[in-house]
Amino acid sequence: GENVEQHPSTLSVQEGDSAVIKCTYSDSASNYFPWYKQELGKRPQLIIDIRSNVGEKKDQRIAVTLNKTAKHFSLHITETQPEDSAVYFCAANGVRSQGNLIFGKGTKLSVKP
Amino acid sequence: EAQVTQNPRYLITVTGKKLTVTCSQNMNHEYMSWYRQDPGLGLRQIYYSMNVEVTDKGDVPEGYKVSRKEKRNFPLILESPSPNQTSLYFCASSSGTGNTEAFFGQGTRLTVV
User: Fold this and answer.
1) Closest chain A residue to the Cα of B49, Cα to Cα
2) Which residue of B has its CA nearest to A92?
3) What is the mean pLDDT of residues B80-103?
4) Distance of alpha carbon A111 from its chain centroid, rounded?
5) CB B42 within 8 A of CB B60
6) What is the pLDDT of residues A60-98, one digit of tens each?
7) Long-range Cβ contacts of A42-45 (<8 Å, 24+ apart)
């Protein structure tokens, strides 16, 4: 079935360093790829998304890249800050599942001061 | 304020005692869904609804029921809860199917003893 793989499951960086989280998806018809941030005890919230007609999107310190040929997309966070510490989920829409979002298993990012 | 509201936030119940978790959204969204979040497994979809009176199974529907009698409400029903349904549950809504931002409720922490 449709699947989204996310790596790594945990990531620890020093404040100011960059963090990269990678996802691969199985459904070649997927055309929407959002990233959600979930702070401890809170709900997931959208931080950035990308559609299949673009290869890269930036919003201040965060950026997402998409390689449709390889079926993978990545989240890049530059100049990390302690408040970036959270669990990050990637997702892709599964066309075969009527467009439902399929989530990766999450990456716990820890930014050490 | 645009929001998705779940109730209750916390619930401890006993095996076999029917319960309902309510979900309501005020954004006139057509699409609503339920997820459960378990450590290491990410967000797994239980059921979704593309419109009033239209519901369908997600990846882990066993032991759950839903209904969509009105556009704004999408309750999750556990007819006979079991300990393996102890989890964190999220309701979400979006204006489109898998290609627009999903807004999540605050979450319901359910413990079945």
Assistant:
1) A100
2) B98
3) 91
4) 17
5) no
6) 999 999 999 999 999 999 999 999 999 999 999 877 666
7) A43/B90, A43/B104, A43/B105, A43/B106, A43/B107, A44/A89, A44/B43, A44/B90, A44/B104, A45/B104
Is B43's CB within 8 Å of A44's CB? Answer: yes
Considering only CB atoms, which chain A residues are within 8 Å of B99?
Answer: 31-32, 51, 93, 99
Residues B39-86 pLDDT 10s: 989 999 999 998 999 999 998 999 999 999 999 999 999 999 999 999
Confidence band of B99 (pLDDT split at 50, 70, 90): confident
Q: Could B97 and A99 be called an inter-chain contact, meaning their C-beta atoms sit closer than 8 Å?
A: yes
CB pairs under 8 A between A and B: 56
Contact B42 A34 (CB under 8 A): no
Characterize the bridge pairing of strands A4-7 and B103-104: unpaired
Q: What DSSP element (H or E) covers B1?
A: none
Length of chain A: 113
Cα→Cα distances B52→A53, A79, B6, B72, Å: 32, 45, 18, 9
What was the pLDDT predicted at A105? 95
Round to whole Å and give the CA distance between A48 and A2. 22
- Report DSSP state, residue B81: -
Q: Do A43 and B106 touch (CB under 8 A)?
A: yes
Show the tokens assigned to A14.
């020093």
CB-CB under 8 Å, A105 with B42: yes
